[in-house]
Amino acid sequence: MSAPLVDIRNVSHRFGQLAVLKNVSLAIEPGSYTILLGPSGSGKTTLLSILGGFVTPSEGKVFIRGADCTALPPAKRPTTTVFQDYALFPHMSVGGNVGFGLRMQGVDGATRATKAREALALVGLAAAFDKKPHQLSGGQRQRVALARALVIEPAVLLLDEPLGALDLKLRRQMQDELKAIQKRVGTAFIHVTHDQEEAMALADHCVVMNDGRIEDEGLPERVYARPATRFSATFMGESTILAGTVTEAKNGIVTAMTALGPISLPGASPAGATVALAIRPEHMVLGDAKSDVALGMAKVGDVVFQGSFKRVLATSALDPALQFIAKAPASAAVQAGDTIPVSCQAQDIILLAD
């Protein structure tokens, strides 16, 4: 097995007495699109800054291409960073902005211009070479920043919430473009965001962070379908969470006692263990259906039409503290005030250690 492109080993960091990263280890493969996903204060931006050389970790090491880069300044490591505010030079043309890194490397003017034009063509802005940044839209300026970062052919491209300043439609468009560009150039991208939809749209390697630690990592499909922790289940998409205690475990089936009664599901957990049962909204069935796990009756409190589905919040009749979150078909006749049965399939319940 080949060595990872980026190898973060036991990295911790403190700002004064505040620990913002706590013994983080992470391997990133060549050509991957890695998303660092987490809420504000989870440590994801600090980790990106350590990778870019803007922060030296209090403890631990960072290796890129097998070389120890822990103490190297940004200009001497094989990374470039795209910031949320783009950081373009307003007095320079777009071509000048894109070629700036090459200029700092001593590349001659003719070569700079050629490479800058190629990079702009890569991001769909071949005609913008002689324009000034203020003549471009937000999405176009984002693409210029991307071209400027890619033109120096870094081993790793770091993106710090690069789509945060864009409106929803443009953000979706840029997600598609970012993924397509990453596949064309083959550079490893490491992208920080707190947007779960963005993470699922872009990543082939999703890293969920919380309180300075990595909670979960892997393919986004796995992290969503079978999250490793309760935090991951609630941050990477929504879940209804049931607290339970295992009363029986045999032959790959666990039975847990919950406020809604006993629930049996596939899994492994010892008798007496405290567990959490997570159910994704799309697996929650409203109304009479032949699901194998009945969750009792619930009163619908809110129904929000969201285009392809209706997001339904309903309060359990058996446990008023429990709120079911469900995705119902857009054509469903459910409305606020209805009292309806709720159920799901046992195989769709996620068993988590609490």
TrEMBL record:
TM spans (from-to): none
Keyword match ATP-binding: yes
UniProt KW keywords: ATP-binding, Nucleotide-binding, Transport
SMART domains tied to this protein: AAA (SM00382)
Pfam families recorded: ABC_tran (PF00005), TOBE_2 (PF08402)
InterPro entries xref list: AAA+_ATPase (IPR003593), ABC_SmlMolc_Importer (IPR050093), ABC_transporter-like_ATP-bd (IPR003439), ABC_transporter-like_CS (IPR017871), Mo/tungstate-bd_C_term_dom (IPR008995), P-loop_NTPase (IPR027417), Transp-assoc_OB_typ2 (IPR013611)
Keyword field contains Repeat: no
Any one GO molecular-function label of the UniProt entry: ATP binding
Domain ABC transporter as annotated: residue spans: 6-236
Membership in a protein family: Belongs to the ABC transporter superfamily.
Name assigned to this protein: ABC transporter ATP-binding protein
Organism: Mesorhizobium argentiipisi
